[in-house]
Structure to design on (741 residues):
């Protein structure tokens, strides 16, 4: 206890400028993405001008529809809830050097597993039993699915990006098969679905808001994963593996286990996103689970530079863009694709901006900057 | 059998439904100016399902005093709930047309409960008085009648008597369209067959093109389909030098040489009716449906491939349907040999049995499972 109080003090005394250095390093990770977003906004404005539309109107509607009112905020948060979870599915393995893009499959299977667990209760069953079982089943299904990607990568050297994408198609086909075949509710004639999970198994809304609890889970998990990555030996080992696999092996780190376990944790996050889709929105599993949250999650994770904490605000930004998309369509007569174009512009500019890191002296610690 | 709800039975049903029903009683003053929100699941110019609604939306915009707000590519998730709320809160919409099947439950139902003053109508026959709020409802058009007429024209012009059908999923509405097309074709050519390939989903352009090519290779000389956007199927058929019959909206411009006719929705009729009722402050019906007889469905104007004989035969069938003459006439078997209808028996054009179709009739080559 006394150590903890005393030790920072002398350090601060030795290097009084340290906090400025920290600020400089931290600022780089904030300023460059924000700059990238602004550049994409500028590029998109040019596009709008070519279409004869008013960019100012676009951005003011974007603000109004996404963040301008209490209703917009709830709309935004509601849409960002699944994105946080699917983005975590990308962000965590990325720290171990794995590019996983198949979160959609884990989400779909998570939703299916959640519904399958609830179905034997016939819409009844004690909430306190059914609800955790559903969440657990969803997390396990997602963990197995993405964990499989880790296993394939480690034991067979299969490229994880390709395998996760292909596995997501298999997951979707599996869900469609179950929902159209063995699990189909005969009453769902033209939209094959499972039977309803029943009101007792439904997740409610956060008090005072129109947003379900998936948002809170997403934020809590983001914080937990942040701590896991940045404040534990597991996270350190993960980052070493991501930095240089050979070095990690040379250090005797269990690279295979690290890869597989982080894939499984990531898959569990996406699986939970599927759980909330079923238990907070649809009340059953059907093809509506395939809504592209898994793919938007990739964008969110990259924009957050795979930092679990940064995933939250970025997911909210994307939720806001999606929430405003409708208003923009209706008020400006723009096709829906224009909002997608804006999103993809952000993504491309952001990838390009990756090359900017470390190029500006202002973001480097003073001592280091002096030396160069 | 009639499904129109007159004011008296509506009053009864409203009373029975209790408080929920009361929200929509006649005389409750609507804002005189109808603001109608139309929500599409895909792009408005898909040459298919969404375009059929968008064409009607455009016609609706031409009606004085009617304001229309539209939103496309809205997924069947919580996003559609928020779109509805946004249309009601920010645009002042008092009537929402939710045009995709998956919008209904739970999304539209939730919103109908949350906004009892707005009216919600869904493009499929799912609403039931006992289960659903009184300010919600369904409207649906029997496109199978249009496919029956197309089938008659196709059977007349087909030389091989083999018709190819690219279908999305083996669900009742799709099966009914396939059956209707075959029954039409057999009316003009008793030996005609319809070979069906299910792609497995509503929009799989690559697989739709493959299926069309496979059907062409199998000797089919007329191609038709039931997928969300028939664009790829019709274009591929045209490229292969085949004749084609359309689905959902007009695909005539896509096939200048091979187009015969097509089954088209005419949502405009319903939308204009509803807009008129709102402007008059009258209660909207909760459940409307119809086919060619009510002008909810029409056939695309004949293309270059339609012969005079085909036009004549199709016109005769259209007249029969306008007179509400049933076309499901026994004896009729399914393609596994089970009897569907005994000799002389008929199924009424609006019989609910048709909505539960779970078989392919004799003459259709293909399997549901």
């Amino acid at each position: 206890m006394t150590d903890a109080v005393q030790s920072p003090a002398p350090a601060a005394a030795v290097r009084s400028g340290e906090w400025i250095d920290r600020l400089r390093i931290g600022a780089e990770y904030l300023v460059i993405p924000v700059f990238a977003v602004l550049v994409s906004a500028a590029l998109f404005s040019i596009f709008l001008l070519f279409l004869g539309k008013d960019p100012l109107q676009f951005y003011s509607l974007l603000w109004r529809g996404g963040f301008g009112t209490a209703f917009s905020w709830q709309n935004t948060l509601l849409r960002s809830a699944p994105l946080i979870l699917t983005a975590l599915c990308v962000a965590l393995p990325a720290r171990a050097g794995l590019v996983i893009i198949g979160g959609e499959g884990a989400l779909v299977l998570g939703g299916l597993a959640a519904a399958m667990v609830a179905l034997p209760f016939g819409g009844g069953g004690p909430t306190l039993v059914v609800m955790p079982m559903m969440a657990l089943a969803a997390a396990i299904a997602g963990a197995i699915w993405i964990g499989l990607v880790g296993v394939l990568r480690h034991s067979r050297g299969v490229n994880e990006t390709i395998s996760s994408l292909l596995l997501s198609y298999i997951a979707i086909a599996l869900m469609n098969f179950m929902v159209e075949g063995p699990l189909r509710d005969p009453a769902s004639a033209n939209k094959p679905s499972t039977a309803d999970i029943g009101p007792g198994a439904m997740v409610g809304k956060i008090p005072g808001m129109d947003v379900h609890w998936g948002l809170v889970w997403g934020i809590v998990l983001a914080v937990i994963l942040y701590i896991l990555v940045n404040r534990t030996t597991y996270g350190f080992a993960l980052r070493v593996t991501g930095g240089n696999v050979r070095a990690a092996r040379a250090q005797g780190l269990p690279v295979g286990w690290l890869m597989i376990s982080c894939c499984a944790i990531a898959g569990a996050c996406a699986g939970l996103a599927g759980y909330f889709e079923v238990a907070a929105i649809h009340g059953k599993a059907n093809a509506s689970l395939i809504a592209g949250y898994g793919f938007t999650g990739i964008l969110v994770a990259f924009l957050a530079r795979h930092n679990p904490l940064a995933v939250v605000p970025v997911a909210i930004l994307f939720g806001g863009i999606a929430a405003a998309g409708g208003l923009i369509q209706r008020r400006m007569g723009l096709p829906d694709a224009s909002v997608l174009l804006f999103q993809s512009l952000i993504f491309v500019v952001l990838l390009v901006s990756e090359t900017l890191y470390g190029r500006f002296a202002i973001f480097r610690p003073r001592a280091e900057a002096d030396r160069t | 059998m009639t499904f129109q709800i007159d004011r008296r039975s509506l009053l009864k049903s409203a009373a029975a439904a209790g408080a929920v029903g009361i929200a929509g009683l006649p005389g409750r003053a609507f804002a005189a100016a109808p603001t109608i929100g139309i929500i599409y699941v895909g792009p408005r110019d898909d040459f298919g399902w969404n375009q059929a609604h968008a064409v009607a939306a455009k016609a609706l915009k031409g009606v004085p005093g009617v304001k229309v707000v539209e939103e496309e590519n809205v997924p069947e998730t919580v996003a559609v709930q928020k779109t509805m709320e946004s249309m009601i809160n920010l645009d002042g919409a008092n009537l929402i047309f939710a045009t995709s099947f998956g919008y209904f439950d739970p999304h539209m139902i939730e919103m109908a409960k949350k906004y009892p003053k707005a009216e919600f109508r869904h493009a499929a026959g799912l609403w039931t008085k006992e289960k659903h709020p009184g300010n919600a409802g369904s409207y649906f058009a029997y496109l199978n009648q249009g496919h029956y007429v197309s089938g008659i024209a196709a059977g007349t012009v087909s030389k091989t008597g083999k018709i190819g059908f690219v279908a999305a999923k083996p669900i009742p509405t799709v099966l009914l369209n396939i059956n209707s097309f075959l029954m039409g074709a057999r009316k003009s050519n008793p030996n005609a067959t319809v070979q069906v390939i299910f792609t497995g989903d509503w929009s799989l352009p690559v697989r739709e093109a493959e299926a069309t090519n496979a059907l062409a290779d199998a000797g089919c000389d007329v191609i038709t389909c039931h997928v969300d956007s028939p664009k790829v199927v019709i274009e591929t058929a045209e490229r292969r030098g085949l004749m084609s019959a359309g689905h959902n909206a007009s695909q005539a411009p896509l096939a200048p040489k091979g187009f015969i006719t097509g089954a088209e929705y005419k949502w405009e009729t319903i939308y204009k009716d509803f807009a008129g009722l709102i402007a008059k402050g009258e209660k909207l019906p909760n459940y409307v449906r119809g086919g060619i007889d009510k002008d909810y469905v029409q056939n695309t104007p004949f293309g270059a491939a339609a012969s005079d004989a085909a036009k004549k035969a199709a016109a005769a069938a259209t007249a029969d349907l306008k007179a509400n003459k049933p076309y499901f006439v026994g004896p009729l078997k399914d393609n596994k040999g089970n009897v569907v209808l005994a000799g002389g028996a008929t199924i009424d054009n609006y019989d609910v049995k048709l909505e539960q179709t779970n078989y392919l009739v004799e003459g259709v080559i293909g399997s549901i499972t």
